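Appendix B: complex inputs.
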Amino acid sequence: MSARITAITSGKGGVGKTFIAANLAAQLAARGQRVLVLDADLGLANLDVVLNLSPKVTLHDVFTGTRTLEEALTEVSQGFSVLLAGSGLVEYSRLTPEVRDRLVETLAAMAPRFDHILLDTGAGISDVVLYTVSLAHEVMIVTTPEPTAMTDAYATIKVLASTQQRRSLLLVVNQTLPTVDARQVRGQLQQVIDRFVSPGLDKPVTLDLVGEVPVDAAVRDAVRRRQLVAEAYPGSPAAQALAALAARLTPAGG
Amino acid sequence: MESALALLAQSGQALPAGAPGSEAWLQDLIDGLCQLSSRDALTGLVNRRQFESVLTRELDRVARAGEPALLLMLDIDHFKRVNDSHGHGAGDLVLKAVADALAHCVRPMDTVARIGGEEFAIALPNCPPAFGPMVAERIRARVARTRIAVAPGTTISVTVSLGGAFAPQWVRSNLKLWLERADKQLYRAKSGGRNRAEFEAAAVAQVSAEEKSLLFATPRADEEQQ
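Resulting structure:
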């Protein structure tokens, strides 16, 4: 068996990609899944910040050949594994053939050892982000109900539909409010996709709403304490929403 | 040395000038052989080997300068039928006529190559995305209207299918990926009915005002119930 690879991407930065990746990983692990989070935000990684880790060996060391992949693979206390990029690897913000090859090799080496690999990509739709996303089986778009976040999510969906022939995308709406719920956000996005993206394609592009995480004071507090929300506040609405997302992504019987 | 000279003479290349054995004469001989090894004997176009080195150079330039470059791959439709019904001599005449038509459709800076039996390719440096389909259509139309005399009193015409892919800007790609991407579009043109061109969809990241206004329109009642 080989891992299911999910790229988590958003278009706009600051919508909670890394937060979702780390918390989803913990929840999947709690369901007995073997999970790896790969920090694919090679330029401005912050998975280490979210998880309160001080990485000793990062992908940078692996890519430059000074350390092995085994040494970089870190198991965290929440029951899953991470590969950290190391912050400030600005030289990787451009997609060179070396970076491509290293990423492919890394995934190929890791895939047999996990059930699920989450690729935490950078913000935007740069070549590195698009390339990373192209390595995944499925794409999870994270947005908030903010107009700017939705616009950037839509731009990302458009690009993925045209350049990667993606026809079905997972959608997670973060920071939902009682007044603007996730179905509304999904409906708005889907409506524009139906009108402007799908016409002329072999198959329409559809968004599958797999999760919604409400605005929750527990999240803000957990992030500040550099803990996962399920550790800090297991009963909070956000923790429950993330557990429900993990349940959606766990194969039946798994 | 004799066989090198014989090769040049046989291919219709000019023989080296100057005193045999002199440095200039040797340089001329080497130039002649290089020329010979980079060309397709039948059509006189650049051959696959030379074409690949042109593309590799182009990939370097695109990665450094960010100028868009287009790779067009094309294939004569139902070429086997020409050979089968008119003979291989006719097939050769068709290949030459198509090569000629291609050479007339492009700029001096473009490189036209024969890369396989009835397969051609063109490298177009500094070609803005909007021009790609225009060039492809010019080629398609010109080939389709070219009458080729294959025997006394017999003229035929052929069509071509084209596939185009731009080199990714600012990114160092590789030859294999670029060729694969263009080939994929050529396949689409073939399976879409031939005598047509297909291009890789360009990434459109801009969101128009129209799209935005729909994105933030008040949701319709039916969407709210989804």
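Residues 220-226 of chain B have pLDDT under 50 and may be disordered.
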